[in-house]
Amino acid sequence: MTTETSTVMTAAGPGSQQNVPALADRPVLVQVRDLKKYFPIRRGVLRRTVGHIKAVDGVSFDIYKGETLGLVGESGCGKSTAGRTILQLEEPTEGTVQFADRELTSMSGNDIRKARRHMQMIFQDPYASLNPRMTVGNIISEPLTIHGIGDNASRKERVQELLRVVGLNPYFVNRYPHEFSGGQRQRIGVARALATNPSFIVADEPISALDVSIQAQVVNMLDDLKQELGLTYLFIAHDLSMVRYISDRVAVMYLGRIVELSSRNEVYDHPLHPYTQALLSAIPVPDPDKEARRQRIILEGDVPSPANPPSGCRFHPRCAYATEVCREADPEFRNLGTAASPHMVACHHAEKFI
Exposed, middle or buried by CB within 10 Å (0-12, 13-18, 19+), for 119? Predict the structure, then answer.
């Protein structure tokens, strides 16, 4: 088996993130290139567009079949919007998304509906994502009905099977969402996502609304399902310790762009971007002596507005290592790792951290 790496090269400007290494020995399931999602800012009586919120501003990455790619960053950095745009729940402003070698951004409504049978989403809030007027059985069977899978009898069997898979009593089919706890509701959301046998799931902060005691159960369940069903995840979260536990690779996002992308251990043990270093320094260490000795990195200032991002490197107003080049030029998204183990980073001074 070869471990050589090829690099996808496309024409783009200096801040482009399109130079993404592709591992030659692993098939790419999802390929994202220069994806952008801008939301218009409208004012006045005529609601004229006076600007744009650049929620996702030119991100590129691959998700390999059978892996979990963790996407982390501060609240408001564009993580959830990126996940929704990949699934075409939000129409992208620019860029391309290929799923299993099919271009999603150029598909018609009917074609994208058919494609969604193979890609699903687990939503963040288990209290808002389940229809309170529908029973659990109807909620889970709805995707089967929409895609015309099976008859009524087979759908009922499938719903009971899915409830068993996610650790719930199959006789709960006639209950309503308000009769369940938050963790149970999220399990129902997972069962709904699994109903059509998808190969790719976007998990949008699936544990952030749950009690700490329940979070580990849900994450372990997701990891077990990945192994049993051969799933591929984009796992969006801001809990860095949980992302390290479940992810194979980690992408760090800041103000609409990915600033670092590598294997889980590389990102956590050898971070090359100052923003990643600051995020990791906030993770508590369960050793009082180490916690007392380690240096915390406190970022100054607030996150700039995505409606008016800074020139050059977007992190430079809060970066202790910023120089004149950081203020003037977008850093290239480049590989500072090896061919077999790429470590992508967008920082002019990343070499000093190697």
Answer: buried
pLDDT of residue 3: 39
Dig out the tokens for 298 from the structure: 């406190």
HSE (side-chain half, CA atoms, 13 Å) at 195 = 31
236: β partners: 71, 204
The pLDDT of residue 21 is 58
Q: What pLDDT does residue 12 have?
A: 40
Compute how many other C-beta atoms are within 10 angstroms of the C-beta atom of residue 97. 20
DSSP 161: H
Task: Give the C-alpha separation, 218 to 215, whole Å.
Answer: 5
Given a contact cutoff of 8 angstroms between Cβ atoms, the answer to whether 273 and 260 are in contact is yes
Rounded CA-CA distance 137/154 in Å is 13
Per-block mean pLDDT, blocks of 10 residues, the chain (354 long): 39 49 74 96 91 95 96 92 95 95 90 92 91 96 94 94 92 94 92 95 90 85 92 92 92 96 95 94 78 78 89 94 95 92 95 92
User: What is the rounded CA–CA span in Å between residue 299 and residue 113?
Assistant: 43
DSSP 65-102: TT-EEEEE--TTSSHHHHHHHHTTSS--SEEEEEETTE
CB burial of residue 223 (10 Å; 0-12, 13-18, 19+): middle
Instruction: Spell out a b/e string for 295-304, using b for 16 or more CB atoms within 10 Å of the CB, else e.
Output: eeeebeeebb
Give residues with Cβ within 8 angstroms of 349, minimum separation 6.
321, 323, 326
- Tokens of residue 275, six digits: 């923003």
Handedness of CA 256, 49, 33, 243 (dihedral sign): positive
What topology is assigned to 5-100+240-353 in CATH? Rossmann fold (3.40.50)
Q: What are the domain boundaries of the chain?
A: 5-100+240-353
β-strand 334-335 against 232-236: which pairing, if any? unpaired
